[in-house]
Automatic annotation (TrEMBL):
Belongs to the intermediate filament family. PANTHER family: GLIAL FIBRILLARY ACIDIC PROTEIN, PERIPHERIN. GO terms for molecular function: structural constituent of cytoskeleton. Its main location: cytoplasm. Residues 37-335 form the IF rod domain. The lineage of its organism: Eukaryota, Metazoa, Chordata, Craniata, Vertebrata. It comes from Amazona collaria. GO terms for biological process: intermediate filament organization. It comes from the Eukaryota. The keyword Isomerase does not apply. Residues 1-21 are annotated as: Disordered. This is Peripherin. The keyword Coiled coil applies.
């Protein structure tokens, strides 16, 4: 069954002549098919109008989106760039200040470390001096003890000598006292006593002088040694006290330097942690802004691609509308008031008013699976006066519902057809899309596949000859 609900006529074998009474029925079927095609074309036009309206709405929406995106990008780019540059400039200045502070603190730390090393060396030297002074003090104490023992021994000897001197004095006194005269050889005894007395006096005087001189010399030596030891002891004690004071001051200074160093290190760590977090946050902000910028660029590219696809669809639909219009005009010209001539040579031929040749129904409405093709009636080229439908037999009513339409999209450059299709190259734009009045055989039997519609930026849309 065809689309209009009418049953197709019975098939005729090859070479069978159609009856003369079948011409009005064929014409009525063609008229009905034409009306159905008009309805179909009207539906297609309505559908295409809806497509065009949708394309226009999408174009308006795309234009609005592109404008808003451009405004947003133009408004956000300077602000974002200025904000980022300002933040980066502030961060760079703060980093420079921190770097200078760090260098200054490192220099101070190095100076304090050098001073600390010098103070430690001085402390070691003073400690060594103190130890040497303590050793000297021990030796001096030993000398003082020895001098004290010597002094005690000398004092004991002095006492003994004083006792001996007293005894000699008593003896001298006794000698000086006159003894009772003895009447025995008086001159000789007197001389002997005088001589003994002189000897003892000289011995006593000499011993006394020697003892006094020895005592004085020893006492002077001991006094000098004691004075020297006392002075050395006083100097050693004074030096030791000074060393202790220096050690205490150096120890307190070292403790202060240690605490200062720890405070500086702690301050450096705190500053690094604080500004490290700020730098990380600013880097996150910059990365977020860059991500948003990339997303905006991707969205813009996506909208541009969608817009380009819509342009391609619009161009294809424009070409399809023009093709439908040309087909409709061709069919209107072909199905205008005409007369049906009797067929000859087993084929079907339709002529218009005035005997002008019309494209055969086999071209307009080929039947699927029928295998029919056009043959020139005179055996010439395609531009002959009449066209015949070669076998198998045409079924016009059934084939009306299966009209073949070939839509080609042509790639153009500078007003000329270009692309891989060799048979369409060099044609002007007016003949780029063939119509029924140009060469239908070339359209239906075209060996090349349809080409991809190109964009308007580098290619021009094919215009159909009105």
């Amino acid at each position: 069954m065809s689309r209009g609900g009418r049953a197709p006529p019975p098939r005729r074998s090859f070479g069978e002549q159609p009856p003369l009474g079948a011409a009005p029925g064929l014409l009525a079927a063609a008229a009905a098919a034409r009306g159905a095609e008009r309805e179909e074309l009207a539906a297609l036009n309505d559908r295409f109008a809806a497509f065009l309206e949708r394309v226009r709405a999408l174009e308006r929406q795309n234009g609005a989106l592109r404008a808003s995106l451009g405004r947003a990008a133009a408004a956000a780019a300077p602000r974002t760039a200025g904000l980022v540059q300002g933040e980066l400039r502030v961060l760079r200045e703060r980093l420079q200040l921190l770097g200078r502070d760090r260098d200054r603190l490192q220099t101070e730390r190095d100076g304090l470390a050098a001073d600390l090393a010098a103070l430690r060396q001085r402390l070691e030297d003073e400690t060594q001096k103190r130890e040497d002074a303590e050793k000297s003090l021990v030796l001096f104490r030993k000398d003082v003890d020895d001098a004290t023992l010597s002094r005690l021994e000398l004092e004991r000897k002095v006492e003994l000598l004083l006792d001996e001197i007293g005894f000699l004095r008593k003896l001298h006194e006794e000698v000086r006292c006159p003894a009772p005269p003895v009447e025995l050889c008086k001159p000789e005894l007197t001389a002997a006593l005088r001589e003994i007395r002189a000897q003892y006096e000289s011995i006593a005087v000499r011993n006394l002088q020697e003892a006094e001189e020895w005592y004085k010399s020893k006492f002077a030596d001991l006094s000098d040694a004691a004075n020297r030891n006392q002075e050395a002891l006083r100097l050693a004690k004074q030096e030791m006290n000074e060393s202790w004071r220096q050690i205490q001051s150096l120890a307190s200074e070292v403790d202060g330097l240690k605490s200062t160093n720890e405070a500086l290190k702690r301050q450096m760590r705190e500053m690094e942690a604080e500004f490290g977090e700020e730098i990380g946050s600013y880097r996150d902000v910059v990365e977020q802004l860059e991500q948003e910028l990339r997303q905006l660029k991707e969205e813009m590219a996506r909208h541009l691609r969608e817009y380009q696809d819509l342009l391609n669809v619009k161009m294809a639909l424009d070409i399809e509308i023009a093709t439908y219009r040309k087909l409709l005009e061709g069919e209107e010209r072909s199905l205008s008031p005409h007369t049906l001539q009797p067929p000859s040579a087993g084929g079907a031929q339709v002529r218009g008013a005035g005997g002008s040749p019309i494209v055969s129904l086999g071209v307009l409405f080929p039947h699927e699976g029928a295998g029919g093709s056009l043959c020139p009636a005179s055996g010439g080229s395609h531009g002959g006066d009449s066209w015949l439908l070669c076998p198998p037999v045409l079924e016009p009513v059934q084939s009306l519902a299966r009209r073949m339409v070939l839509i080609k999209t042509i790639e153009t450059q500078d007003g000329q057809v270009r692309g891989p299709c060799p048979c369409m190259r060099g044609l002007p734009l007016s003949g780029a899309v063939p119509t029924w009045g140009v060469d239908p055989i070339r359209v239906l039997n075209h060996p090349c596949p349809p080409q991809q519609v190109v964009t308007e930026s580098h290619r021009q849309r094919a215009e159909l000859e009105q």
